[in-house]
Amino acid sequence: MMVERAMAAEAALGTPEGPDHLVLSEVGMTFGTLDVIPSLSLSVRRGEMVAFLGPSGCGKTTTLRMIAGLLDPTRGRISVGGRDITHLPVHDRDMGMVFQSYALFPHMTVAQNVAFGLEMRRMAKVEIRARVERALAMVQLGHLAGRKPKALSGGQQQRVALARALVVEPSILLLDEPLSNLDAKLRDEMRVQIRSLQQQSGITAVFVTHDQVEALSMCDRIVVMRGGHVEQYGTPNEIYERPATPFVASFVGRTNRLSGRVDPSGRLLIEGRPVAAEGRLPEGAVEVLVRPHRMSLRAASEEPPAGLNSLPGVLTGATFVGDLIQATVRIGAGEITVEQLTRRRSGLPEPGSAVTVAWEAGDTMVYPEGRA
Amino acid sequence: MQIHKTSKPMGILVAVLFLYLLAPVILVFPISLSGDSVLRFPPTSWSLRWYEALFENRAMLGAFWTSLSLAAIVTVLSLVIAVPAAWVMVRMEFRGRDLLFNLFTAPLLLPTIVLGLAILIVFASFGLLATMQGLILAHLVITLPYALRILAVSLATQNMACEEAAKTLGAKPLTVFFRVTLPMLTPGIVAAAALCFLVSFDEVVITLFLTGPRISTLPVELYNYVYNTADPLVAAASVLLILLTLGVILVVERAMGLGRAFVK
Amino acid sequence: MTAVPAVSAGRRPMGGQQVAVALLLPIALINVVGFMLPIFNLARYSFNRATVGGGIENVLTLQNWTGLLGDPFYLQLILNSVFVSLGVTLCALILSYPIALYLHRASGSWRTFLTVLVISPLLTSAVVRTYGWIAILAEEGPVVSAIRGMGLTPPPLMFNINGVFIGLTEILMPYMILALLAGFGRLDPRVEEAARTLGATPWQSFRRVILPLTAPGIALGCLLCFVLAVSSFITPKLMGGGRVFLLATEIYDQAIVTLNWPLASTLSILVLVIFGAALVAYSAVLKRLD
């Protein structure tokens, strides 16, 4: 549900169409004998917010740290605004970074923390004071300027970290799992705040996360990573609706897997029954993915809805979870989940009874078998 | 209800054992106020005469100032040498790092009687016997391992992200060190300083090998005094030593909490 | 989140290597001059010959070693040192164990307070504490008076092995307690409760559950105390009244009084050999406990 709503909001905003600002070309990282990132190329447009999304160990943080200059890439080139920064020391890169642990300097006050980057740029004291004041006002923390970080709540520390990174007006804002240490409610608030600050300042931002909701709701484009590779790079809508691989489909949103076969004439068959799908289909054994909430369920005795794909199965169980009913249905040897919105008089068939599962042709995602 | 709730006999036993453990430290307090001319407990009369005697004892006073300046110099040098060394050990990766760390802390594993003799023989040929330089060097041999260990642990547990954050904000390596790493290391530095001071100030065995009529430290003077005489003078000195130690501990306690400094 | 090595690989300011060497140079120099050189020198001296009047003849000889191991006085001295150290270690263990167990079970500020009490003797000079024992065990001291008060004849406590034993045990107890406490880490009070609910008497649960679980801490504490006892010098010297001969006191006398540095060096190396043996025994015990 969350995902869908977030995407609707995103679609309304549109994507900035600026020139490429940050460019990674064939960047690779090797630790000892371990190829953490074999070769990675991608570019981020000016003013765009891009998420690196993937499970832990996928190389997303390593990539972010290479952009920041905290790690030296083994191979490849990184450039910002056309300027090669691959071997530039961290302190000359002009990046603003928000760390997962916030990394606020514990021995400095909030104001001193925010002023640090400006002092490094040898700015006049008066100017520094004015900018710090503005930055703290921007994150609604002006009243806590004299406090030490220890005396702040998690959300307040997060905002200080954000102000500290933004106040220097860096060329790129880097965010490393910035919301993972916050509780759920605060995370929702901060998502909105970070996104609006980023859009107001028009800064280019890279956001590392393992949380699909954050990536889908906050970012213009998403890089889905796995094992040091880019699995897919696209807008939230593309990632969700047209996942490039079964991995993307199952990592972003949930999905059912069915085994099928495309015969030489190009017809897709599941359990021997023809199923409609859009686009060109790969021949041979295939994996068919359909999202649970795009499927519907009815008793086998009812007429299958016209124009939809339908498969017969046996209802094996149903769980009531408030907004939804999650039904499990056995189809052939496999089992899938169907999600339906609850209504006051929802008439699910009895467990054990024969049912028909139906979905639209456009919701069928087909991949060659074995392409994990 | 916990089954193993301490029983009464156990409590009494532990109290008696604690009494045994603390008896010699506790006892010097009343003895220092003795009015007797020999070591006797309980004293037959009370007075401050032994404190007066202590402050009139020039050898003791001289040794006290030697000890104090020696400990202060050793403490400062230990920090100046150990902080950069600990930084290299923790923040840089190089082959043989663990070996080097073990080598630098190895003097702690050696009995002081052996180390004292070994240093005596070498220092004799360098002309360092009974000199301040010799004492400073010898004390550094045993304070540096403590300082290095405490500072390395503090550095290793420090949040590295803070240094990285400083770098991304434009701070050069030296600036990062002085504006972020060093201030964040303050508790470790205080603990290391306190320990170095106490170790140097209390050191007897190695110092015994290296002192002579020309230069002596307070613990060595006390040792020599106890070796020759048994009167309450040393009790008065002991009380002052204990109070000084307590003062140092209080400083550490204020800075970081005693538990964290010594128990861990 | 994602695993990243703690040290950024590769990137280092220009000349980082030289900087590292420069920063390590002072500590390395002190280590060489004040530790390595002296120890190598010590080992060498144990194979040199002493000449009359404190001189050293730079020849390679086993004379010190054969002389030492062939002399009944030194053999007795070595045995004395080892047995006294073993005895002191055992006493320290027996007296420290209840304190450590009590501390382990205590909680909150009470525990902190008791821990400070245990550590405080460690921060007090060995000379001061030995002096305290001299005061306690002296002819006019509280112990002797108390025994007299009961109408008994007190045994000689000062300036003999008894006094050394009593003082040394107390001086080493804090080390033993801290080592035991460190080893008690894995002693979960619920394990003992479980044993009791299974019908074990307090003694059985101690013997069958607590003791085996705390054995590694006991081994560590014993190693530490033994090693410290063998090399202890201040207490035997001050409380022994010149009548207690142990390895450490003999090293000092040979070095400072007799000025026979080769012999003192040989005795020192012998102490290190005993250390090595204790370490071997400790690892053997640990292996059996696993």
Quick rundown:
The complex is a heterotrimer of chains A (372), B (264) and C (290). Chain B has 264 residues and is mainly α.
CATH topology of the largest domain in chain A: the name is Rossmann fold
* Main sheet makeup of chain A: 6 strands, mixed
User: Strand order across the biggest sheet of chain A?
Assistant: 6-7-8-3-9-10
Question: Which pair of chains has the greatest number of interface residues, and how are they split between the two chains?
Answer: B-C, 82 and 86 residues
Separation of the first and last Cα atoms of chain A: 26 Å
Number of domains of chain A: 2
The CATH superfamily title of the largest domain in chain A: P-loop containing nucleotide triphosphate hydrolases
Structural class of chain A, please? alpha+beta
In spatial order, strands of the major sheet of chain C run 1-2
How would you sum up the global shape of chain A?
elongated
Give an account of the 3D structure:
The complex is a heterotrimer of chains A (372), B (264) and C (290). Chain A is α+β, with helices and mostly antiparallel strands. Chain A contains nine helices and 20 strands. Chain A has two domains: 249 residues, Rossmann fold, CATH 3.40.50; 109 residues, Beta Barrel (OB fold (Dihydrolipoamide Acetyltransferase, E2P)), CATH 2.40.50.100. In chain A, the strands form four sheets. In chain A, strands 6-7-8-3-9-10 form a six-stranded mixed sheet, sandwiched between helices. Chain A has a five-stranded antiparallel sheet with strand order 13-12-11-14-20. In chain A, helix 4 packs across helix 5. Chain A starts with a helix and ends with a strand. Chain B has a domain of 172 residues: MetI-like (MetI-like fold), CATH 1.10.3720.10. Chain C is mainly alpha-helical. Chain C is built from twelve helices and two strands; from the N terminus they run αββααααααααααα. In chain C, helix 1 packs across helix 12, helix 5 crosses helix 7 and helix 7 packs antiparallel against helix 10. The N terminus of chain C is likely disordered. Classes of the chains: A alpha+beta (372), B mainly alpha (264), C mainly alpha (290). At the B-C interface, helix 1, helix 3, helix 4, helix 5 and helix 6 of B face helix 1, helix 3, helix 4, helix 5 and helix 7 of C. Chain A: It comes from Cereibacter johrii. Chain A: This is Spermidine/putrescine transport system ATP-binding protein. Chain A: Pfam families: ABC_tran, TOBE_2.
